[in-house]
Design brief:
About 60% of the residues lie in helices and about 0% in strands. It has helices spanning about 1-10, 15-25, 40-45.
Length: about 50
């Protein structure tokens, strides 16, 4: 369930919550939801921040 919680947090765009989750479990960076990576989900839901 931790991966699902992480991806939900990514989709909400909650960077303040994502950072400590990754610090505690770097493997979460590999979490996927039906194919797309966490980074791609962030772009889909929040757009790039450049």
């Amino acid at each position: 369930m931790r991966g699902a919680d992480f991806l939900a947090t990514v989709k909400r765009g909650d960077c303040a919550a994502v950072e400590p989750m990754l610090a505690a479990d770097p493997g979460l960076a590999l979490a996927r939801e039906n194919g797309p990576s966490a980074i791609l989900l962030a772009c889909y839901h929040q757009g790039p921040t450049s």
